[in-house]
Design the sequence.
């Protein structure tokens, strides 16, 4: 059985070079085939009968060569998918369901406030609904991949979602020979229904029960952590601070996939971190 491929969702009208570089590099390191998806906003007015998407695939090939260097597309030989008139997130999830990739790679704008409300976030929707791990690469990322000097930071809570994050983070770190930092944040008391709804007090000391639970979670995952940090504070702020202090190359974390009222009330730490 061949290894599961990688899927890169590409917006050729945007600066997708960072996501492309990361996807191509990881495909090479893992020996996986690379699939590239380009979603067109609407159907073209004229469609050649022989190969209606030939021109659009050529545009993707040009984008790949621009991002990775001349001749890169010929060397990579990616499978290019062109979808017309579908929402990018829906098209990405549908193709992921079809080809069962090991990982979806896409870029993210890091929008906030009104801009995010008006435009939404393809990356956030894909993360909530995708059937596999998702790697979101900020368009303005300064550090594209982990390295021996750029650790992988794995954020865990004490839920079952942490197990998947630990496995994915450790796998990614191994491919880049990067150290692993496991981080658990202890939020203020009362946190959980929105930080602006219930005011809480940040715990200044970490209980032995918490330390033991974190240790057991890591031990059960079977991974080797180079460093384990347990820090008080709001999770997204702690994650961002440690990532900046340690100059990490990648943040791995689980997501509950909340939707509807639950998502509106509780929010998503994952998405807050991604926008930061």
Sequence:
């Amino acid at each position: 059985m061949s290894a599961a491929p990688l899927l890169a969702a590409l917006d050729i009208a945007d600066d997708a070079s960072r996501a492309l570089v990361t996807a191509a590099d990881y495909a090479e390191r893992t020996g996986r085939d690379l699939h590239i998806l380009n979603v067109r906003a609407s159907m073209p007015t004229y469609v050649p009968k022989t190969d209606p998407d030939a021109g659009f695939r050529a545009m993707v090939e040009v984008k790949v060569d621009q991002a990775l260097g001349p001749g890169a597309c010929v060397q990579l030989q990616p499978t290019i998918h062109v979808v017309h008139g579908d929402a990018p997130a829906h098209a990405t999830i549908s193709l992921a369901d079809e080809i069962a990739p090991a990982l979806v790679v896409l870029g993210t704008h890091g929008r906030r406030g009104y801009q995010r409300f008006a435009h939404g976030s393809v990356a956030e929707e894909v993360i909530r609904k995708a059937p596999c791990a998702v790697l979101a690469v900020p368009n303005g990322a300064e550090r594209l991949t982990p390295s021996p000097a750029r650790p992988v930071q794995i954020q865990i809570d004490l839920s079952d979602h942490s197990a998947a994050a630990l496995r994915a983070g450790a796998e990614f770190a191994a491919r880049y020979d990067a150290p692993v930092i496991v981080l658990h944040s202890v939020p203020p008391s009362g946190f959980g229904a929105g930080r602006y709804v219930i005011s809480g007090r940040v715990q200044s000391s970490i209980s032995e029960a918490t330390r033991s639970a974190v240790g057991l979670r890591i031990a059960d995952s079977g991974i080797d952590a180079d460093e384990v940090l347990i820090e008080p504070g709001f999770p997204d702020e702690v994650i961002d601070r440690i990532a900046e202090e340690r100059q990490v190359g990648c943040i791995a974390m689980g997501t509950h996939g909340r939707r509807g009222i639950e998502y509106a009330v509780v929010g998503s730490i994952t998405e807050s971190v991604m926008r930061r």
Observations:
- The chain is about 40% helix and 20% strand.
- Residues 113-119, 193-202, 260-266 have pLDDT under 50 and may be disordered.
- Strands lie at 6-10, 34-40, 79-84, 103-108, 133-138, 152-155, 180-186, 227-232, 250-253.
- The longest helix spans residues 54-68.
